[in-house]
């Protein structure tokens, strides 16, 4: 297939999203997110050749929330490798991101690293023997390195507002602690989790951070972030589990590995072709960006980038 002409495609999608009538609902269960303007929409596409195309509010910073779970998983696999899969599964859950229902029958082993329970186990791994502040600093260094951007930081207001109200996550961490699948104090794993969710990035920064996943694990500097096999598997997990109980719908409509967050961001990967970030804060019923999903559907259709091919 010929190279798509990205600049007009992306500009048209941003224009269409401005006029979209159904923008979803901004997450309000985390007070720090409730104030975000639902009119926002941004998109950034970084291609394998290193060109970047942006439109809309692509430079505006937002809370990446659960998109951070991709970077945290990458770090955890670097620390303990496949031993991680003894503590976290790799099956889609078919349940909401913050669900506790499967954990009792499955003895404290979360279905996958992208639901909250799985991400909290990943945080427990990333604590290793470090203090939570050191572990969050390591993750921040990692995303800054991936994006080649030292300005990426954490929105402390979002982190502390979630720490004050994240009772379900507290319950998940304690429940898994009871099964011996959280090794540190639950408060420490949660502190890391709330801070990693509060990393703030723009679409451009997020698309830059995802480049290793489109490039068989390679950083643009030529360094290997992960092996090609590991990049392939992280992409597979994003495809199967990245949108919780809407992962099937996302695969059906878009056909790319993707990871969403309740801040309204989505990172999507077209392997070998592009790293894509979209952001629009209004969410659908499953907590994924309503317009972000629609924009990716149009992008996949107009570029033919779905891994299943076909427009
Ligand atoms: N889906 C999400 O982005 C959820 C992340 C959010 N910090 C939470 O734990 O509820």
Automatic annotation (TrEMBL):
Keyword Membrane: no
Domain of life: Bacteria
Annotated EC: 3.5.1.2
Gene: glsA
This protein's name: Glutaminase
Catalytically driven reaction(s): L-glutamine + H2O = L-glutamate + NH4(+)
Tagged with keyword Acetylation: yes
Pfam families cross-referenced by the UniProt entry: Glutaminase
Record InterPro entries: Glutaminase
Record keywords: Acetylation, Hydrolase
Residues that coordinate or bind substrate: 66, 116, 162, 169, 193, 244, 262
GO molecular function annotation: glutaminase activity
Subunit structure: Homotetramer.
């Amino acid at each position: 297939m010929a190279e798509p002409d990205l600049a007009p495609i992306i500009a048209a999608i941003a224009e269409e999203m401005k006029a979209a009538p159904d923008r979803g609902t901004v997450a309000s269960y985390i007070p720090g997110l409730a104030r975000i303007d639902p009119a926002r929409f941004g998109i950034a596409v970084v291609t394998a050749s290193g060109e970047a195309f942006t439109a809309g509010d692509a430079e505006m910073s937002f809370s990446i929330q659960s998109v951070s779970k991709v970077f945290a998983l990458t770090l955890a696999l670097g620390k303990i490798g496949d031993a991680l899969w003894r503590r976290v599964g790799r099956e889609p859950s078919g349940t909401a991101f913050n669900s506790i229902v499967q954990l009792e029958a499955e003895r404290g082993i979360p279905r996958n690293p992208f639901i909250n329970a799985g991400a909290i186990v990943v945080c427990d791994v990333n604590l290793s023997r470090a203090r939570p502040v050191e572990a969050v600093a390591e993750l921040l260094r990692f995303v800054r390195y991936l994006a080649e951007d030292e300005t990426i930081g954490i929105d402390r207001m979002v982190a502390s507002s979630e720490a004050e109200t994240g009772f379900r996550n507290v319950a998940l961490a304690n429940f898994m602690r009871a099964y011996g699948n959280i090794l540190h104090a639950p408060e420490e794993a949660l502190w890391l989790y709330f801070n990693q969710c509060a990393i703030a990035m723009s679409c451009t920064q997020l698309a830059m951070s995802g480049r290793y996943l489109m490039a068989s694990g390679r950083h643009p500097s030529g360094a290997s972030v992960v092996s090609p096999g590991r990049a392939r598997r992280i992409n597979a997990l994003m495809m199967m589990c990245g949108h919780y109980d809407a992962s099937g719908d996302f695969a059906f409509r878009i056909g790319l590995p993707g990871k969403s967050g309740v801040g309204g961001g989505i990172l999507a990967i077209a392997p070998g072709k592009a790293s894509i970030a979209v952001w629009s804060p209004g969410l659908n019923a499953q907590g994924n960006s309503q317009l972000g999903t629609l924009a990716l559907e149009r992008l996949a259709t107009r570029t033919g980038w779905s891994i299943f091919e076909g427009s």
